[in-house]
Amino acid sequence: MLSPRRYKYPLSRSVTVGGVELVVRALSQSQIHEAESEALSYAAGASDSMVHLERLCQIVSVATGISIDSARCLTVSQLFRIVSVWSEVQSDSVPDLQRLDAAIRLAVMDDPETSADGAIAHASESAADYYGRPTSEITLGQLCYWTVLRNAFRELRVEQGGKKVSRAWLQRQLGE
Amino acid sequence: MASETVRRVGIDDYQSPVREVARVEWRGTGRLVGILHLSVGELLDAHMEARREFQRRAIPADEWSSEELDREEMTQQCYRLLVDPDAGDASARVFETVKQARERLTAEDRLYFLACYQHAFGTVREPEEQ
Question: What b/e readout covers A91-107, taking b as 16+ CB neighbours within 10 angstroms?
Answer without folding.
Answer: eebbbeeeebbbbbbbb
